[in-house]
Amino acid sequence: MSAQEKKPNFDFKKELDIPQKSLMELFREIARENKQNNATFFKGKYKTYHELEVEVNKLSNAFHSLGIQKGDRIAVLLPNCPQYITTFFATQALGAIFTAINPMNSPLEIEKQLNDSEPKLLITLDIFTDKIKAIEEKLTLDHVIITSVARELPNTKKYIYKLNTMRKKVPLKNSLPYDTIIYTQDATVIDVPINPKEDIAILQYTGGTTGSSKGAMLTHYNLIYQTEMLKYWRTGLEKQPDGQLKIAGVLPYSHIFGLTSSFLWPIAEGATIYLIPDPRKLEEIMRVINDFKVHFLNCVPVFFLKFATHPHVNKYDYSSLHLCISGGESLPVETVKIFEEKTGCLLIEGYGLTEASPVTHANPPNRQQRSTGSIGVPVPNTQARIVDTETGGVIDTPDVSGELWVKGPGVMKGYWKNDKATDETIIDGWLRTGDVTILNDSGYYKIIDRLKDLIIVSGYKVWPNEVEEILLTHPSILEAAIIPHHTELGTKIKAVLVKHRSSENISIDDLRSYCKKFLAPYKIPSLIEYRDALPRSLVGKVLRRELQTTAE
User: Fold this and answer.
1) Calpha distance 383→404 (Å, rounded)
2) How far is CA 407 from the centre of its chain?
3) Among candidates 183, 267, 272, 180, which has minimal Cα distance to 223?
4) HSE value, Cβ hemisphere, 13 Å, CA-based, for 362
5) Pairwise CA distance, residues 218 & 210, whole Å
6) N or C end of the chain: smaller count of CB under 10 Å?
7) How many Cβ atoms from other residues are within 10 Å of residue 195's Cβ?
8) What residues does 436 pair with on adjacent strands?
């Protein structure tokens, strides 16, 4: 692979000039500059930027004919597929507000988000209609538009898909076929004035892993900032790819990290997005990287671990990969080592949260400046401080933990219909992250844990992340989660473990003996539970609350 060599001298503190434009302006500029270039690849079929824009225009006209106006909400229940992209930009064309629902959600969870966001219209796949049917009478939707993966497949695959999914489809009242509304519209450009700093582009619902899910109001400016920042961050690579960028769309777009890092940033680069609707199909992703020479892949720590330990990982060539970014939760050092050993690709950790659009910190994208085991440094235009959780004072001393607060152009406008939560979370422009963090004397930040995950044992503080990091260094342990175990004699530490396939179960005595080398006695687990897998959210975060519930 030929690439432009570059000596790392990356100025990660540079202030960027963020353009005052809407997401639709961004898309039209890129589509005009890249008309004949491929925008997406999905299951063997390419779509050019020109074809994508024509479909966006037709769909926005269809939405307009259905009465959608500026400020109305449009919801999607879709995996990563071309219709997700067209619906997103058709929504932006009208100045409407886009909200995405995790396709893994239960009908009850879908109902809650729809009734909170109050969209006029929902677009979903035919294979998800059973979920909508179950709550149909409890919704206030004006329209449901049904589409199918089949429309985006090459002809050779359409018949097999339809045959395999026939039994999953459930008819809905007053639903409209996506194909029909597309084909009956012209491609007239709709132009709605947008105030980038004030107008809401998306309602992005928080993961709800530590409480009830809330809708973060993210503006056009919030998201344009993220694309500009990621474009700049790429310039710190040791080597730059030649030609049009190729970026894997693996991380689900219904999650904010997937939306910005694997959809909006690629669009801003005029890249080809290789859409993967199911990130669990690891060998399919390996083949796509191998066959199409993909340059970038962003995902979550557990994905990179499973990728690197997959039995067929050595069958494929990953030399085209220039950078992988991990986010969503802490990236274990052992995962970095094994992934880089197996693929040869640089894997760095970043950090963010829904309320910040999301990225606030990242490691510089080269081996000389990155700091494995940390979340890196604040990204351009973003400030960070560590605040004492008891006094509220700013901590200036290195390696002293406190709550991370951030401020910058990515910070949300607020929570949808929830002023109380907004006022508790944003103080004088500073966003409270809820994450306990330390800053070392080199200026790199490290997440200790979530404030809400703190465990008190005999009056001492135990952060689950710290214990989990030690457990993951044991050669027999593949995954680990630490939860409290409450007894009449006080709280004890419980380890929920997943072992390597080839390993035997570790006894509690052997585990405690191992941990004594690294941890104070009160941090060492007193109990062990083995599982085949840990419960995780859509983007791979361990659901500790679910582990505690099942243990009680």
Assistant:
1) 10
2) 20
3) 267
4) 31
5) 21
6) C
7) 12
8) 403, 449
User: Considering only CA atoms, which of 443, 431, 323 is closest in space to residue 374?
Assistant: 443
Number of neighbours of residue 427 by Cβ within 10 angstroms? 13
What is the Cα–Cα distance from 313 to 286, expressed in whole angstroms? 8
Beta strands in 252-374, from DSSP E residues, in sequence order: 272-275, 296-299, 323-326, 347-352, 359-362
Provide the residue count of the chain. 552
pLDDT over 70 (residue 193): yes
Distance CA 119, CA 125 (A): 17
pLDDT at residue 2 in the model:
42
**Whose CA is closest to 529, among 486, 480, 465, 488?**
480
Edge-to-edge strands of the sheet including 527-530? 477-487, 490-499, 527-530
* 97 DSSP β-pair partners: 73
Identify any residues that bridge with 348 across adjacent strands, giving them in sequence order: 325
Query: Of 43-57, 157-171, 415-429, which gets the smallest average pLDDT?
Result: 157-171
Q: What is the pTM of this model?
A: 0.86
183: CB partners within 8 A, 6+ apart: 58
The pairing of strands 45-48 and 38-42 is antiparallel
The candidate with the shortest Cα–Cα distance to 196, out of 220, 225, 224, 213, is: 220
Each residue of 31-85: pLDDT tens digit? 999 999 999 999 999 999 999 999 999 999 999 999 999 999 999 999 999 999 9
CB 396 within 8 A of CB 422: no
Asked if 194 and 24 count as a contact pair (C-beta separation under 8 A), the reply is: yes
What is the tens place of the pLDDT at every residue in 251-282? 999 999 999 999 999 999 999 999 999 999 99
Between CA 400 and CA 439 the distance in angstroms is: 7
Spell out the residues 6+ positions from residue 373 whose beta carbon is closer than 8 angstroms to its own.
333, 349, 446
- The tokens for 103 are 């396709």
Average pLDDT over residues 325-340: 93
Enumerate residues 6+ apart whose C-beta is below 8 A from 178. Answer: 83, 123, 145, 146, 147, 148, 151
